[in-house]
Design goal:
360 residues, alpha/beta, seven-stranded mixed beta sheet, four-stranded antiparallel beta sheet, 13 helices, 11 strands, 39% helix, globular, binds pyridoxal-5'-phosphate
Length: 360
């Protein structure tokens, strides 16, 4: 009997599966250790949490409510459940993480508020489609849930980034229709450095009402947050967080992660490193005829078409990536590559070398 090929262990320096596999970055780990010296007030009444609230206001240039959490799913579910009643719906794009990857958390937290799914394109939403769908739903009166919030992802689930003009147009359209705007910013920093704009410009100044802000994929151990820009949401958000079991008693350990994340532009530095590698990988494979990026590289994710045989070859050399459902043709193989701040630059030359050894 032929021997099965030995299983190849994926190598961390060649793994493109997810930015969640990154370690905690050194400054954030150092800040955690430095904060770990004595007892401190619980439930966010400590000095680090106090400092964090002021720092968040500097970063976003306005008054706000920041609620640190430890998962992005909790951030999205809390943010959205603060905005909707169970008989209202959340307008979003069909590939949104809140729809495809959160196990019904939004419905669970909101006592059943459903989604109204739009096709969009490459994870992006468009004002005309939103307007048409909202007006159509409202024309049905109580027979359809009432659209109440627009949720968009920046970076989108297909790795694209909304421009400021696109964001403003979406927020204006949503507000004219009486919708709140929620932004899933799990990769907010990657979008920021891609556009080279300020955090305020890409959120509150564009018209975003509530933001799920992620740091875990970009250097933190477990630090996500909801940031509400509208003061009327503050009380609801605080009660909902506690009821959902997300008010951490040792909140200071989340606060120090955020403070270190924002110190000396650490978050931008990490996101730039991740985005630059994605760009270099995209450029490296661009001349090849056996690989094709589905969308232009805008942040730190690429969606690459190539044969399963080539995928196997790469995996045998320690590369790894997720199989991804093709958005238009289920018969075509597609793979998601995600870069991250800790990935060494050598991955680009390693990949090219490995590809050059491949003969179909
Ligand atoms: C677009 C998006 N939103 C939110 C999340 C947060 O998910 P988690 O609950 O795993 O932190 C992720 C993580 O993969 C994501 O890609």
């Amino acid at each position: 009997m032929p021997k099965a090929p030995a299983a190849v262990t994926p190598r961390p320096d060649r793994a493109l599966t997810s930015d969640n596999i990154s370690p905690v970055s050194a400054p954030i780990m150092a800040a955690l250790i430095a904060a770990n010296h004595s007892a401190a007030a619980s439930y966010g009444a400590d000095d680090h949490s106090d400092k964090l609230n002021r720092r968040a206001q500097d970063i976003f240039e306005c008054d706000l409510t920041m609620v640190p959490l430890s998962t992005g799913t909790a951030a999205n579910a809390l943010a959205l459940s603060t905005l909707v009643e169970p008989f209202e719906c959340i307008v979003t794009q069909q590939s949104a993480h809140i729809v495809t990857d959160e196990c019904g958390a939004i419905g669970f937290y909101s006592a059943g508020a459903p989604f109204m799914l739009l096709n969009g394109q490459a994870g992006k939403l468009y004002p005309a489609e939103i307007k048409q769908a909202v007006q159509q739903a409202r024309s049905l009166g109580v027979h359809h849930t009432n659209p109440r919030v627009l949720s968009l992802s920046q970076v989108t689930e297909w790795g694209l980034v909304y421009s400021l003009d696109e964001l403003r147009a979406l927020c204006d359209c949503a507000h004219e229709l009486g919708l709140w705007v929620h932004m899933d910013g799990a990769r907010f920093a990657n979008a920021l450095v891609s556009l080279n704009v300020s955090p305020a410009e890409m959120s509150v100044k564009a018209g975003v009402d509530i933001l799920s802000l992620g740091a875990t994929k970009n250097g933190a151990m477990a630090a996500e947050a909801v940031i509400a820009f509208d003061p009327s949401l503050q009380q609801k958000l605080h009660y909902r967080r506690k009821r959902a079991g997300h008010l951490l008693s040792k909140m200071r350990y989340l606060a120090v992660q955020w403070l270190a994340y924002w110190q000396d532009d650490h978050w931008l530095h990490n996101a730039r490193a991740a985005n630059a590698l994605a760009q270099q990988l995209a450029e490296a494979i661009a001349p090849r005829t056996d690989m094709h990026c589905l969308y232009p590289c805008a942040a730190n994710e690429l969606f690459v078409e190539y044969s399963p045989a080539l995928a196997q070859h790469l995996r045998q050399h320690g590369f790894d990536f997720y199989d991804w459902p093709h958005p238009t043709d289920p018969t075509r193989a597609l793979w998601r590559w995600v870069t991250r701040f800790d990935l060494p630059a050598s991955i680009v030359t390693d990949l090219l070398e490995c590809l050059n050894q491949y003969h179909a």
